[in-house]
Predict the 3D structure of the following.
Amino acid sequence: RGPLHGIPVLLKDNIATGDGLHATAGAWALRDWLPDRDAFLVQQLRAAGAVILGKANLSEWANYMDPSMPNGFSVLGGQTRNPYGSFDALGSSSGSAVAVAANLAAVAVGSETQGSIIMPAGSNSVVGLKISRGLISGDYIIPLVDWMDVPGPFGRSVTDVAVLLGAMTGVDEHNPTTQAAASLANMDFTQFLSVAAAQGMRLGIVVHDEAHVDQLIKNLAMADEEAATFRKNMAIANQTTLQAAKIWADLGLQLVATPISQLPPVPDLKLVIGYAFRDAINRFLTGLGDKAPVESLAAIIALNEADLANRAPYGQGHLQAAQYSTLTAAEYAMLAARNQTVTAKGLEQIFADYGLDALLADSQFYAAAGFPALSIPAG
């Protein structure tokens, strides 16, 4: 018996299984695809005793179908809804988060490129972990931006997420990035869930510093009276943030005010995502050989155009933008490397300058940097 013996798990519908379940990314073009094997993480889950209950809906093509398509919608799965009411379920792992929140399964697996685990976890009041690249293999998962994509766990508690995380880890011979995390393979991460272990850890709390406020006032060309009110409101916001973070201090962590002006910018994926998706999805489909349900992104677009009302009711603007991206391979490689290094170096500098163990922030700069991020319900 393993750590997940008999536990039902739902998988985001871009993760392949070889048990007769479809893997569609929510897209009409992949509606009939039956993968011939389990993704590596699914193999690991089965070895840990998990029961693969089924697939969870997602924002179609990992939320890269059309700008007007709502979060949580796919043409095959319909509209995922937040179980707490008329709130945005967010995406693209909306179905995985909602399934856990609505008690449809104990835990679920999603994937993230930038925000697709953290955001639906927050919106649906569950725990979601975006892992560092290589901790869990991304084998046989329909890609979006392959150098950013990572799978990750959802649960109703940090403990559940820690158990699921450990079960999915392991060195995948087909995925070299997992070699760097070999020492964490099949790790029991629940051993680290100790308040005692947190004593004295330094938690950065992002605050609006004077330099940041000055720049905002300048950018918005505020008059003196308006600027004075704005400064007062920013000071109140800082006090509110620090007061809300007091729960961490009560647990023994040391709070460290961290200036927002020091944070690295969130890379603009619009510059790279089109080329990245076209390149990744075409290579994925080519790798399926004669078992591919469709041969290319161009073919997917053509299939949708044959019946837009039923196959792409919100349009397929993102797919078309990807197909006609004018970036060259060299330009893309340069931009991708820059996105990774700038954010990673920026975050590493903050952690070094302020002696931080963790950073509490509402930003997605962690994604391009390859840093892990955790979202937990905060009341």
User: Anything to note?
Assistant: The CA atoms of residues 135 and 181 lie 6 Å apart. The first helix runs from residue 40 to 47.
